[in-house]
Specification:
The complex is a heterodimer.
Chain A lengths: L2 H22 L11 E9 H10 L5 E3 L9 E9 L1 H9 L4 E6 L2 E6 L4 E10 L10 E3 L4 E4 L5 E7 L1 E8 L6 E7 L3 E2 L2 E3 L6 H8 L12 E4 H6 L9 H5 L5 E2 L9 E2 L7 E5 L2 E2 L4 E2 L4 E2 L6 E7 L13 E7 L8 E6 L3 E11 L3 E10 L2 H6 L5 E16 L2 E15 L5 E16 L4 E17 L10 E20 L2 E18 L14 E18 L2 E17 L6 H7 L4 H4 L3 E15 L4 E12 L1 E3 L13 E3 L7 E13 L3 E18 L15 E18 L3 E16 L8 E2 L6 E12 L2 E10 L3 E2 L4 E5 L2 E5 L6 E2 L3 E10 L12 E9 L7 E8 L2 E6 L3 E9 L1
Parallel strand pairs in A: 2-5, 6-12, 6-13, 17-22
Antiparallel strand pairs in A: 1-3, 4-5, 6-9, 7-8, 7-10, 10-11, 14-21, 15-16, 17-18, 19-20, 21-22, 23-24, 23-53, 24-25, 25-26, 26-27, 27-28, 28-29, 29-30, 30-31, 31-32, 32-33, 33-34, 34-35, 35-38, 36-37, 38-39, 39-40, 40-41, 41-42, 41-43, 43-44, 44-49, 45-48, 46-47, 49-50, 50-53, 51-52
Chain B lengths: L1 H13 L5 E5 L12 E7 L4 E8 L9 E2 L4 E5 L4 E6 L5 E5 L9 E8 L2 E8 L15 E6 L2 E7 L1 E2 L6 E6 L5 H7 L5 E3 L15 E2 L2 E3 L3 E8 L2 H13 L22 E2 L2 E3 L1 E7 H4 L2
Classes of the chains: A mainly beta, B mainly beta.
């Protein structure tokens, strides 16, 4: 037997012997507890206790294994009480005694843990910091949640906490913990943010960020400008590994083989159904208004649901709660102005932003004589009622108006509002209660050139919802989230108000639907290096079709073969969505993660465009003829995170069911039976992603590569054969370098090389009335030439002698989009049998000026 | 720093935007055999009817060729009327006396290269609607004695689908119809795909004298023919960043035959130009 095992068993035997001995003989406790006379001379605690049992017949039990051997006792007791003796013996040890069933039991002292709860905030503006990490000397303890709150269990006594977050100076706080308490931690922004910020943020989520998912903050969004010299949130998201776009200028996102309608885009928790201005050239998110973006594409926590592929969670800034500021800027696409300041100092603040777009760049991009414009407004108010209660109110209103020939108008916009109440029941239990409103509508002239009629085609969706999200901090490594969510959807898939009374209905019936969900999500360490996160989301969807009123409507539906709609009581679905994530940390720098998600989606965007520009959004719900979309997602990843190198790789497989595709040549305007234009099938996506980031003194480089394949098989499309999805772009290489030669200058170079998207080219022509008519066969069997692009962005901060004191701060951003002037094809139209006429972007220089005072 | 500024400014000034260019493209290999495309049909306008047959172009040059020596006939519901190839290769003509078989079916039979093709269409009666207030074009006075018409190729959201011809010069309607390159105006019952369409719209803008007159013809379409014409529009004139996925256009010719054999009724009215701007 090994020596240490021998010792272990010896101790165990000795303990049992003492315990059994004392119990068998039922030694009196108090019989000889008074007037004890005993002398210890450099006795160990074990010896002292044993002598009390044997010599003084004290009914005492203990585990020799927990008794420290290094403490020696020397004392003479004359007529002492037993508690005096025990107090003396145990005074320097981590032991205490209890009286249990007439037996004195010596046991380890119970640890008294205190809960420290609070918010991590920006020291200058008071903005909450999401995903801020808290470490002590040995390990990561916790992170601030999506509302900036954290809770931490600490034993009493002194401890040093290290608080850090990307772009902020690390902070150390020494606590002498004597009781549970609330504390707000203020972090100061780093002036030299390059190294840390760019390293971590350009990696996908894997394990770098303590909160599941990738995060983008203001620094990242501003480091790379899009086509118009605008910092654009969606365009920044498109730069992440695993996220594709199929045409420059588009705001659509195709995440790990998912379609463009399978991303849940949130603005302060309210859904955004069309995040695009100018058909997608610019996103609706004003960079002055956004604090942080969290992107979930791998592990989707159970508190999110309703979409298959990703969650893009945009959090608006709260506004500076200490000082009044005006900020804004001017670019080739827009002018921005914002004001922020305290409502009540340190208790509440406001932020109001305004942006108005110009048409310059659109005209440069599109060969259309267009008058296009957009505007948007953001408002955010917050107020701290007391230590445990805080309320928020935020709103967004934005619209686009386009006018082409002959009064052909197209206008669309979002109205979004959020009311939130954050409540702390105690340091461990946090509640976020939200009441949300989202209204998207699109109006299109459909016969503006008719002299005797003027009709509009209106599509839209209105959501009213309420949700409650609880977070319970069980221990530092264990957290439970649970909550409920209720959404009232109103779908307007397409209707023309001037034609409500037509004899033959042309309007698509409206739908009214209720979507409910209850979830829980439990994160815990099942071993010291093995973290398990599991959750379940139970979702319920009820949809009722609302037939239009009108003359002869009953006869119309009876005669059209859709008589079921007249008697349809509504359709409901109950689905369970399990989530699982297992992470094993080999050591401090190496980790592995496995993820499984099942997601259901009860609404879909009916849009037949080959490309992914926003034009006419028609959202329709699951119904008796449309099954909910479903996806099973599996991934496995590895992460190396050392001092100057971050490497992550993830392989994934996504199987999507009940996928919706429009018929060939489908017509969804003035067609009341939109469901007859739909076909259903499945889709399979798989891929592998690599990301390597290395930093030197003032240079950070990031290399990302994705190989992915997306195939679809839809009944009635491509003769039921499998075909490549429009967004099947197998190779996607991205390389970016951030260089900061001096503190006032930052340079970002971004290069991307990716496969050309699939296209359907003709196999021949025939002639009809003098016009060449293409003959098409299989879908997406050809592809466009590969895309290459290099962008440069330079940020200059003017020098002033009193740099640290000046109130007026400004930056100049010079950007050259597509420096190499590569003619990356956006769309093609075949004019002549042997040529294609392409629309391509080409080089776009731009200048942006920003200020703040 | 100065060098950097000079480099940057030079970069911005030297470069310029260009929006489009032309690049070569390859045809895909075809999986099916395409021997025949059909143009033309039966009209109530005249008893003499013409049908043109051609072979689709499947080579990169895209050239089509006339189809000669085909056996062509049309059944008017009672009789099978043979069509003979004219002196123009690929052009077949026949006389249909019974050309007003409204709501009746006319059937085309073609035998070519040992393959038989058929097509059928219904003759729909035209809905009389040619009036000053619903003409498919606009007019405006540009001087004391001149009026400019604006004639689009496509219009949307119309009460009924139809094809129109506006004759404002000395063109002969017969010659136009026989040319197989008729400058039709298409009125679609379906809506405009979206607002961008009008920016790629084709127009004719003739300038006429106040003393002139114009003749407007309206031709009826069967429901399936109007759908076919809308798909043609989607795959040709409507190509934009919002275009739908390209896919096969299916007419009413059996097998791998392309095109559409149609039946059409007509209405005609004359207008004085001066009345168009009242």
């Amino acid at each position: 037997m090994q020596p240490h095992l021998y010792c272990y068993f010896k101790k165990q035997l000795w303990f049992r012997f003492i315990l059994i001995f004392s119990l068998l003989f039922k030694l009196p406790l108090y019989g000889q507890t008074n007037n004890l006379n005993i002398t210890f001379e450099r006795s160990s605690i074990s010896d002292a206790l044993t002598r009390l049992i044997v010599e003084k017949k004290i009914n005492l039990s203990f585990d020799p294994g927990i008794i420290p051997q290094n403490i020696k006792i020397t004392h003479r007791f004359n007529g002492a009480q037993i508690y005096e003796v025990l107090n003396f013996i145990l005074k320097d040890s981590p032991l205490e005694y209890h009286l249990t069933s007439n037996v004195i039991v010596i046991a380890a002292k119970k640890k008294i843990l205190f809960v420290i709860g609070g918010f991590i905030k920006d020291a200058e503006t008071g903005e909450y910091i999401i995903g801020g990490s808290i470490f002590n000397s040995s390990k990561h303890l916790t992170s601030s949640n999506n509302y900036g709150y954290f809770a931490l269990e600490l034993p009493g006594g002194n401890d040093t906490l290290h608080i850090s977050h990307l772009g902020y100076k690390k902070k150390e706080i020494v606590f002498n913990v004597r009781q549970s308490m609330a504390v707000n931690i203020l972090l100061e922004k780093q002036t030299d943010t390059l190294k840390e910020v760019k390293v971590a943020a350009k990696n996908n989520d894997l394990f770098v960020n303590p909160v599941a998912g990738s995060s983008l903050n203001q620094d990242i969004i501003w480091s790379h400008l899009s086509e118009g010299g605008e910092p654009d949130l969606i365009k920044s998201v498109q730069l992440l590994n695993g996220i594709q776009t199929i045409a420059e200028g588009s705001s659509s996102l195709f995440v790990r083989g998912g379609d463009k309608d399978q991303n849940l885009i949130l603005l302060d928790e309210a859904p955004v159904y069309n995040p695009a201005h100018l058909f997608g050239l610019v996103s609706i998110f004003n960079p002055d208004a956004i604090n942080q973006v969290q992107i979930y594409q791998n592990e989707i926590p159970a508190n999110f649901g309703g979409r298959l592929s990703s969650v893009i969670d945009n959090v608006m800034q709260n506004g500076d709660n200490k000082t009044f500021h005006v900020k804004g800027g001017l670019s080739m696409l827009s002018a921005r102005l914002a004001v922020e300041g305290p409502l009540v100092s340190d208790k509440g603040s406001y932020l109001f932003t305004f942006r108005k777009g110009f048409t310059n760049l659109l005209k440069a991009f599109a060969p259309f004589p267009y008058n296009a414009n957009y505007s948007d407004f953001n408002l955010k108010l917050n107020y701290q009622l007391n230590t445990n209660n805080k309320i928020y109110l935020s709103g967004y209103y934005g619209f686009d108006k386009l006018r082409a020939f002959d009064n052909y108008d197209n206008s669309w916009g979002n109205k979004i509002a959020t009311f939130r109440w954050n409540h702390l029941f105690n340091s461990r239990l946090f509640l976020n209660l939200s009441v949300l409103y989202s209204n998207y509508s699109n109006q299109l002239n459909i016969d503006a050139d008719q002299s005797d009629a003027k009709s509009q085609w209106i599509t839209g969706i209105i959501d009213k919802s309420i949700k409650a999200d609880f977070t319970y901090y069980v221990h530092n490594s264990e957290q439970i989230k649970f909550g409920i969510n209720l959404i009232n959807h109103k779908f307007i898939p397409g209707e023309s108000p001037s034609r409500f009374n037509d004899t033959i209905p042309v309007n698509i019936p409206r739908h009214k639907a209720i979507e409910m969900a209850a979830y829980f999500n439990h994160r815990l360490n099942i071993l010291s290096d093995l973290q398990l996160t599991y959750g379940l989301r139970m979702s319920y969807f009820y949809n009722k079709t609302l037939l239009p009123n009108g003359p002869d409507i009953v006869d119309f539906y009876m005669n059209s073969g859709y008589s079921d709609l007249l008697t349809e009581p509504g359709k409901n679905f109950l689905r369970f969505e399990p989530r699982l994530c297992l992470q094993y940390n080999f050591n401090k720098n190496n980790a592995m993660k496995m993820v499984y998600n099942r997601n259901y989606q009860y609404l879909q965007l009916v849009q037949g465009e080959e490309l992914a520009f926003s034009s006419l959004e028609s959202w329709i719900p699951a119904s008796s003829t449309i099954a909910p979309q479903m996806a099973d997602f599996y991934s496995i990843g590895y992460s190396l995170n050392s001092k100057d190198i971050i490497f992550t790789t993830t392989a994934y497989l996504k199987k999507l069911y009940n996928q919706v595709e429009l018929n060939d040549h489908a017509q969804i305007i003035l067609n009341p039976f939109i469901e007859s234009q739909l076909q259903f099938g499945k889709s399979t996506a798989s891929g592998i992603e690599f990301s390597l980031t290395k930093s030197w003194k003032n240079i950070t480089g990031n290399l990302g590569y994705t190989y992915s394949v997306v195939n679809k098989q839809i009944a009635g499309i491509n003769e039921n054969n499998t075909f490549k999805a429009n967004y099947n772009i197998p190779h996607n290489l991205r390389f970016s370098v951030d260089y900061q030669p001096v503190s006032r200058i930052s340079i970002n170079a971004f290069f991307t090389y990716k496969s050309g998207r699939p296209v359907t080219l003709p196999v021949g022509y025939y002639i009809e009335n003098g016009q060449r008519i293409p003959i098409f066969e299989d879908r997406n069997t050809s592809h466009l030439p590969d895309d290459k692009r290099l962008d440069l962005t330079i940020e200059l901060k003017p020098r002033t002698r009193t740099d640290h004191k000046k109130r007026w701060k400004s930056t100049w951003l010079f950007s050259v989009y597509n420096v190499l002037n590569q003619r990356n094809i956006i769309f093609y139209a075949i004019d002549h049998p042997t040529t294609v006429n392409n629309l391509s972007s080409g080089i776009v220089p731009s200048v942006t000026y920003n200020f703040k005072f | 720093m100065k060098k950097l500024s000079v480099l940057l400014i030079s970069c911005i000034l030297i470069t310029a935007c260009k929006n489009s260019y032309v690049s070569p493209i390859k045809f895909n290999n075809h999986g099916s055999t395409y021997d025949l495309a059909v143009e033309g049909g039966i009209t109530t306008f005249q008893t003499s009817q013409q049908i043109r047959l051609s072979k689709p172009g499947l080579l990169p040059d895209g050239k089509t060729s006339p189809v000669s020596n085909a056996l062509v006939s049309v059944n008017d519901g009672t009789d099978e009327i043979p069509f003979k190839e004219t002196q123009t290769p690929g052009l077949y003509a026949g006389t249909i006396i019974n050309n007003t078989n409204y709501d009746g079916v006319y059937t085309l039979h073609i035998t070519y290269n040992k393959e038989e093709y058929t097509a059928a269409d219904i003759l729909s009666v035209v809905t009389p609607s040619i009036q000053l207030n619903n003409l498919p074009f606009s007019a405006r006075a540009i001087s004391a004695d001149q009026v400019q018409l604006k004639i689009p190729k496509h219009l949307f959201g119309a009460p009924t689908a139809a094809r129109w011809i506006v004759i404002y010069d000395k063109s002969s309607i017969i010659n136009l119809l026989n040319s197989f390159t008729v400058p039709y105006i298409y009125t679609h019952q379906l809506g405009a795909p979206n607002s961008l369409y009008s920016s790629t719209q084709e127009f004719r803008e003739p300038i006429l004298s106040l003393r002139d007159s114009i003749t407007v013809y309206k031709f009826s379409l069967s429901e399936s023919y109007s759908q076919y014409l809308y798909t043609l529009f989607q795959e040709t004139d409507w190509k934009n960043i919002f275009s739908t996925n390209p896919s096969g256009i299916y007419g009413n010719i059996s097998g791998t035959g392309q095109g559409y054999f149609y039946c059409t009724d007509y209405e005609m009215k004359k207008f004085a130009v001066k009345d168009l701007i009242k």
